[in-house]
Amino acid sequence: MSGSCFFFAGGGTGGHIYPAIAVAEQIRKLEPAAKIHFFCSTRSIDAQILRQAGFEYTPLPAKGLIFRPRALLDFCTTFLQSYRIAKKIISTSDNPTVIGIGGFVAAPACKAAHKLKVPVKLINVDIVPGRANRLIARWADEIFVQFEDTIRYLPKFKDKISVVGCPLRESFSQPQPEKAIEQLGLDKSKNILLITGASSGSENINDAVCSLLEKLNDFADDWQIVHLSGRANFEKVSRKYANAKPGHKVIGYYDEMQNLLAAADLVIGRSGAVSVAEYAAAGVPSICMPYPYHRDRHQYLNAGKLVEAGAAIIVDDVPDAKDRAEWLWEELQALMKDDKQRREMADACRAVATLNAGHKIAERLIK
Question: Which residues contact 133 (CB under 8 A, 6 or more apart)?
Fold first, then answer.
């Protein structure tokens, strides 16, 4: 086996895997002989993304930490199984480095690396580090973060932290919006409203937007809709668009988000760390509907960075569906009518975007 071996550990969502792929792509460019391997979760989204990106991977059986007796036993059992699998693979590789990328799979692989005295690095893109990343920070030699604010959540490790931004795939530097327009059969003369619940979709966002379709009929002359429903909700959402007047395209999943976001004139979506970085890089105004069920409410904090810059508006994903839809409509219809505000928000996006984080991290890893 020639060259160094770089193991990325984590997964469960695109928000963990996409930044790692961005760094891995840069490693490939800088050191073509390097071997790259992912330790990911057993969720289908991980395999799907990694297969498309062309990277080797090993699913680990690790499960999240839940404080109930049976679930706690499962956590401990699968943590140990994952630790042993990762340790065996890492120990037989040449010049390895393990990079934690977040999620419950990251900790056992990084623990194995630490035990083997293999260098451990950490990529943390949310403002508030998750439970796994707070644990990995103890073992890490370097910690790469998107936001300066993250330092106050890891005060003991501030000397190891570098603020570099969120690694995005290189294609975000050179998007092809016309490609998305052509692929999806969109009208070049109309604005595009993009609805997205991230890689798995969001039922609450889907329901809120679908309840507004009758009102959106008034915008049919100037606007069209692309709705990323998530694969599990594709049929349900498609049926709700049956009588919608605006041109529309409902799809379960779309891989080339750099092109679609660059084509969009306004986006409604979640505000995971990767999502807000992608909105900024694409220069697209956003209505952020943060996922409301995280205990640390980190999606609110992520979205808050765009709001501070004048690039986004937050609509709470409140429990009452009627209230949620009414609040969304109030902000949505105002922005759809106001070309000037959307242009100003787009300019504000570009002012906070970072496009070279993946390259910076890859350079540090190779050194």
Answer: 100, 102, 106, 122, 124
